[in-house]
């Protein structure tokens, strides 16, 4: 039973990660292919953030409670992301290295 649960967990993590990679393609123009850039010279370097921090930031951009000068731009970018997509995107970003 433990092997089945571990296997299902691994498969779901792989699915989330691949979906995150697809979602990240829209982010790479500003944040860099590896999340290594400060978007437009103003954001944090996102590949240094934890999954929890990324989820908080993405959800905060969605509801307008997070962000600095690029708050409005980012709200538009993440507005239609589902909870699962936010998690997938955050998980993918944590795998990026510069």
- The averaged pLDDT comes out at 86
Coarse morphology: globular
Count the helices. How many? 5
Let me know the largest β-sheet.
none
* Structural class by SSE content: mainly alpha
* Rg computed from alpha carbons, rounded to a whole number of angstroms: 14 Å
> How do the SSEs run, as a string of H and E?
HHHHH
Give the number of DSSP strands: 0
Task: Please state roughly what percent of the residues sit in beta strands, choosing from under 5%, 5-15%, 15-25%, 25-35%, 35-45% or over 45%.
Answer: under 5%
N-end to C-end Cα span = 39 Å
Task: Outline the secondary-structure elements.
Blueprint: H1 2-24, H2 28-31, H3 51-63, H4 71-78, H5 83-93
Helix pairs in contact: 1-5, 3-4, 3-5
């Amino acid at each position: 039973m433990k092997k089945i649960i571990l296997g299902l967990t691994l498969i779901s993590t792989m699915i989330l990660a691949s979906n995150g990679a697809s979602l990240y393609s829209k982010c790479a123009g500003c944040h860099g292919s590896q999340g290594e850039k400060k978007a437009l010279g103003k954001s944090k370097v996102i590949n240094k953030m934890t999954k929890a921090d990324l989820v908080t930031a993405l959800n905060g951009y969605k509801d307008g409670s997070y962000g600095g000068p690029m708050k409005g731009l980012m709200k538009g970018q993440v507005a239609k992301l589902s909870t699962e997509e936010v998690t997938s995107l955050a998980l993918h970003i944590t795998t990026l290295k510069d």
